[in-house]
Write a structure and sequence with these properties.
- This protein has helices at 8-15, 45-55; strands spanning 21-28, 34-42.
- The chain is α+β, with helices and mostly antiparallel strands and 64 residues long.
- The protein has one domain (8-55): RRM (RNA recognition motif) domain (Alpha-Beta Plaits).
- The chain has a two-stranded antiparallel sheet with strand order 1-2.
- It is globular, with a radius of gyration of 12 Å.
- The chain starts with 7 loop residues before the first helix and ends in a 9-residue tail after the last helix.
- InterPro entries: Nucleotide-bd_a/b_plait_sf (IPR012677), RBD_domain_sf (IPR035979), RRM_dom (IPR000504), SLIRP/GR-RBP-like (IPR052462).
- Residues 1-64 form the RRM domain.
- Keywords: RNA-binding.
- GO terms for molecular function: RNA binding.
């Protein structure tokens, strides 16, 4: 779950330490507000695995 204050840049910053990011997107509703989740695509599968292992269960912006 992502705080509604997290944008594409914030999501990218959170995950960049795990590897090279090919794409990063926060899902937005028709009203222009965050839907509370996003997608990050890494260049390497092992970097994605590291991100999942390290970020799973992390509280981001007050939302667990």
């Amino acid at each position: 779950n992502l705080s509604d204050k997290i944008d594409h840049n914030g999501l990218n910053e959170m995950f960049a330490k795990y590897g090279n990011i090919l794409s990063c997107k926060v899902a937005m509703g028709d009203d222009g507000k965050s839907r509370g989740f996003g997608f990050v695509q890494f260049e390497k599968m092992e970097d994605a695995d590291k991100a999942v292992t390290n970020m799973n269960g992390t509280v981001v912006g007050g939302k667990p």
